[in-house]
Design goal:
Length: about 425
């Protein structure tokens, strides 16, 4: 037993699963990870430019919240549609389409001349944003073997923190080099970069074997499962509980990340440099949280890991936004905040992949995750409206705490799926 412990303590032991991957599996891993990073980069641009739009266009906080909410609502619909498409035309093709879609409409955001045009462009961008998560999560979940699925999918999910970090760096660079009225547009115009990545996916990434086997079975029997099968009596309860789980995770996350830069600037009265320092702590914490949670979701199981990180997120979000602490303490609180709110998601892709059979995995995973996103998307709007009668930090804390409470309750009722082998 001591020998095993010593072996596990060696750094290379933690990543032995990655070294065991085939070339095909590694290409899929990196494609999904980079895809998530690029998705996050384009998505997070909005949170950085909200203060500039409020100042230059005279937007209210309610208007700014509406843009964020509409983006999340359309991403919810796009995610479910992408899930259905992935069951029909394949995971890889759907991934390519969704990346091209969100890159194109991110560029259009940079060309918007008024609030209405930006609202439309951002809303259409949301279709691809939601679809990319669904296609990527299903793809990597089906490629990796059961015992390592949580670690692999969680580390892919960590690409989101990398993209968030890149968007923060680009924000600082553009607003240093350019006047504000051009800097925010330049950020969105850089959103075209993910389109180039599609070339790599098209050449080097193949469909998962379990999906190909399912398609061959469908061709042989000419009996395709309809996307509405997730609402059949034997699946409906699972689907609805999965929606509650994802609603809690995403409602809490979007409550914090959409409004955090504005909160730091308007209520903590930080400079742009100071805000960047706070966000850097949150982003670093996010990446570490993704990685740690990726290992814990296989070690503890999906349910215990969800509950652990949701409880941590609830406590730290309330502390970060409500406690009367000085700037130095706030700075260090950013790390556990990012650690918890992002670590919640590491096991999500693997869990939803295991929760639904291959024949309806795209539809099931796409609907449950993105319906949770749709409901969670109301949180930025409600925070924006509530901040007109209460402090913005207080509104963030109330809605985030409620969301994570819902997540814990849902996790307690769902089955444990860790180690489950995927079947057609």
């Amino acid at each position: 037993m001591n020998t095993k412990v010593a072996s596990a303590a060696q750094p290379e032991g933690y990543f032995a699963w990655f070294h065991a991957l085939t070339g095909k599996e590694r290409r899929t891993f990196w494609s999904c990870k980079i895809g998530y990073a690029l998705d996050a980069m384009d998505t997070q641009f909005l949170s950085f430019v909200i203060p500039t739009l409020i100042a230059s266009w005279g937007l209210s906080k309610g208007d700014a919240g509406l843009i964020g909410t509409v983006t999340l609502l359309t991403s919810a619909l796009g995610g479910w549609i992408a899930g259905i498409m992935s069951d029909r035309i394949g995971r890889v093709k759907t991934l390519q389409i969704t990346i091209l879609w969100f890159a194109f409409f991110t560029v259009l955001c940079g060309l918007a001349q008024n609030f209405q045009q930006l609202l439309w462009a951002r809303g259409l961008m949301g279709f691809g944003m939601g679809g990319e998560w669904t296609a990527g999560a299903i793809l990597i979940g089906e490629v990796i073997r059961a015992k390592d699925r949580g670690k692999a999918v969680g580390m892919v999910q960590a690409g989101w923190a990398l993209g968030w970090g890149v968007s923060a760096l680009l924000y600082a660079l553009m607003f240093t080099l350019l006047p504000a009225e051009w800097a925010w547009r330049s950020l969105f115009l850089l959103g075209i970069l993910p389109a180039l990545f599609v070339i790599f996916i098209r050449r080097f990434v193949d469909e998962p074997e379990v999906f190909i086997a399912e398609q061959n079975k469908v061709k042989a029997s000419e009996d395709r499962v309809q996307f509405t099968a997730i609402f059949a009596p034997k699946m409906l309860s699972v689907t609805l509980r999965a929606v509650l789980l994802t609603t809690g995770a995403q409602g809490g996350y979007y409550a914090i990340t959409t409004w955090l830069p504005t909160f730091l600037k308007t209520e903590r009265h930080l400079t742009v440099l100071g805000t960047g320092g706070y966000l850097a702590m949150v982003i670093v914490g996010s990446y570490v949280g993704y990685i740690v949670s990726a290992f814990l979701t296989d070690y503890l199981g999906r349910k215990k890991n969800f509950i652990l990180f949701a409880a941590g997120s609830m406590c730290i979000a309330l502390a970060y936004t409500r406690l009367p602490v000085n700037d130095s303490v706030m700075l260090f609180l950013g790390f556990p905040l990012g650690f918890c709110v992002s670590g919640v998601f590491s096991g999500m892709g693997a869990f939803l992949t295991e929760l639904f059979p291959t024949s309806m995995r795209g539809s099931g995973q796409g609907f449950s995750y993105n319906m949770g996103r749709a409901i969670g998307s109301l949180f930025p709007l409600m925070i924006g409206l509530s901040s007109q009668s209460m402090a913005l930090g207080e509104a963030i804390g109330v809605f985030a705490g409620t969301a994570y409470g819902v997540m814990i309750l849902a996790a307690l009722t769902l089955p444990e799926t860790a180690g489950k082998k995927l079947e057609s």
